Amino acid sequence: MSIQIGEHITLPDFPLLLAPMEDVSDPPFRYVCKKYGADLMYSEFISSEGLIRDAIKSRQKLDFFEYERPFGIQIFGGDEEAMSLSARIIDATNPDLVDINFGCPVKKVVCKGAGAAVLKDVPAMVRLTRAVIKSTRLPVTVKTRLGWDDDSKNIEEVAERLQDEGIGALTIHGRTRSQLYKGDADWTLIARVKNNPRINIPIFGNGDVDSPEKALEYKSRYGVDGIMIGRAAIGYPWIFREIKHFLRTGNYLEAPSLEERIDVIRQHLYRSIEWKGPVLGILEMRRHYSNYLKGIPHIKEVRNQLVQKGNLEEIENILESLRLKAECLRLSYA
Question: Which among 215, 249, 283 is the end of a domain?
């Protein structure tokens, strides 16, 4: 059974979504996640006011490739006019959907009355959503949290009111804003939204899914239509492939070999350079190396070398040396 968002977006049964993550979910990162099974992806979140001011960084985040479809562009803001104008700009770039961020807990966003701050003012959230829906021909979805804090978990009201406005799907992160990313995500309220007989749009859950076992457990226990994966995919795009295989067969896939990790690092690196230029492309890859190589024995020295080099040839020499060592070890145990 497929999952439908609007009239034209059809996702597989129990889709896996890649979360929009600031300074992470750029086209090079999305490329490797798509390759290993992400079903729906989003841009990094974009400030509506930055977008209408023609801020260069905001405009660049609108770019995507055809192979990324279905693809959504996510915006945040606290001003109806800015959100409306942003939706029109996005409409012209022709993604598959517009997503509104009502969940970002970061102080610089919240202080502007955007992101998770809107959870304190549900009527404002409704007005912002309505402004976006009226300004685009695309389906509009929302990502949010359980509420502002433990005393104001209003997600059930939020879900009903946003559905009534016409959103096509809702993703719920199982924490409040006051929790930030600490403590365990609470999926029981996500399940209550999903099981509400008034709710008929897809409900996707987000928070703490970092293994195939958890994906199956949350699917079975909470009944959500799909799962959004964020931090667990950083440096490990194979999680999408592993979850899908486990859900389908009940068996685990082997973890990626060191050779495969090196191959994906190279793909990510070259796309980063192509997208951002040689200086920035190499610099911004540094945040990914430790995650790609996490769990590999005696890797610290190599990891330190990778983050210190600013020259592609030097990085290639380190990766090739590592690959040859991995091949020798594999042959010696064959």
Answer: 249
